[in-house]
Every structure is written in C-alpha cells, then in structure tokens.
Amino acid sequence: MGCAISGLAAKAEFGERTTEDAAAAAHPREDQIQMIKESWKVIRDDIAKVGIIMFVRLFETHPECKNVFFLFRDVEDLERLRSSRELRAHGLRVMSFIEKSVARLDQLERLEALALELGKGHYHYNAPPKYYSYVGAEFICAVQPILKERWTPELEEAWKTLFQYVTTLMKRGYLEESNRQRQLALSPKERPDKRNTAL
Ligand code: HEM
C-alpha cells in the first residue's frame, strides 16, 4: 500500500459523500484543467499498468469492493490479480473513461452527460455510490511514482477535483436510474406520473 492518501485517509480527503450532496459538483478550474492535461500526456503511456495497480490497491484498502465483481470476489491472493487478463481489461476500461474525461474538460456538458450515463450503468452493475470516492485516491497513489518530481500538491488537488466532479455526477446518475427503476416497479395505478388528467 504505502501511499498517504489511500485507504482510510481517502475517506476524509475525498469526502466520503452521501446521496444528499450528489447534486453539487465543482468542476476543475482552468489552471487545473491545463495541469491535468499536461500530466495525462505522461500517464497515458502507462494506462494498463495504472489500471491494474489502481484496482489491486482498491481491493487491498477496501476489500468490500471486490464483492461487486463476479470474477474477482473469490480471489484471495491479490498478487494473482496483478497478472489477470480480466483485471487488465477492466482497468483499461476505467482508464479509457478517464482519458475521455480529460479530453472533454473543455466541453463540460459532454463530460457531465458521459459521467451521468456511467453512473446509470453502475446501478445495473450493482456498484453502489459509497465506493466511487475510493477510486480517485488509488489513482493518485498509482500515478505519483510515474510522474516523480513532476507531482506537486497543486496537481494532486487538480486530480482530486476531477475525480470528485466525475464521481459526484456518477452518483447522481446512479440515483436517477435507481428512482427510474423504482417507478417502473410500481404498478401503473401507483405511478405518480400516470394520473389521468383528461376530462
Ligand atoms: C471513478 C470511479 C469509477 C469509474 C470512472 C468507473 C468506470 C467504469 C467503466 C468505464 C466501466 C466499463 C463499462 C461502462 O462503460 O459502463 C465500468 C464497469 C464496471 N465498474 Fe466501474 N468505475 C468506477 C468505480 C467503480 C467501483 C468503485 C466499482 C465497484 C466497487 C465499480 C464496478 C464496476 C463493475 C462491476 C463494472 C462492470 C464490469 C466490467 O466492465 O468489467 N466501478 N466502470
């Protein structure tokens, strides 16, 4: 493990937020956007590696997250996961999303739509919002050694802001989808939007 913001510390740093504040998300400032883009040019050469490190760390620091993944829930030896093709593929999917997010930092409405959809998808993956905020801390721990002396407190703050922004939107998407599914499960008589207003 060995990264100060990982694990328990991450809960305070990233704010283990609940559903009430899923509505408020501050996007990165212009100077932070430039910093993120510059650092991404270095990080992207190692995305497969970062994806694996990030998820192995997540499972180490928050073992309860492993249960969400059908393929990994019974794996006891996390070292074995480092060479797993499935974890590599999953890590790459998540990192590709981060790549898309970085590319859309100049079109925040598109990034917002993307993150909302991702949150809706996570409702169907049974991955609840309380876990999302852990990922940014593990990402930061995984990329710090790659950026070496280029890593600064300001850059850390910029990446934290981006993760906070994306995961807050994901939470909102998750909640919207969960409400939609609840409405669908109600019988037509009980559905509030099905009242017959015709004379
Ligand atoms: C910053 C946080 C996260 C991001 C950006 C993210 C991103 C993604 C992406 C891009 C996919 C691929 C499928 C799709 O596009 O819908 C995915 C799938 C999935 N995610 Fe996440 N995720 C995050 C957090 C989590 C957490 C914390 C969990 C569980 C504890 C989780 C569980 C899953 C599962 C079960 C799938 C489906 C299986 C798979 O595609 O391999 N995700 N996620």
TrEMBL record:
Belongs to the globin family. It comes from the Eukaryota. InterPro entries: Globin, Globin-like_OT, Globin-like_sf, Globin/Proto. It holds the Pfam family Globin. Monomer. Homodimers and homotetramers. Mainly monomeric but also detected as part of homodimers and homotetramers. One of its GO terms (molecular function) is oxygen binding. PANTHER family: BLR2807 PROTEIN, X GLOBIN. This is X globin. GO terms for cellular component: membrane. Residues 27-175 form the Globin domain. Keywords: Heme, Iron, Metal-binding, Oxygen transport, Transport. One of its GO terms (biological process) is response to hypoxia.
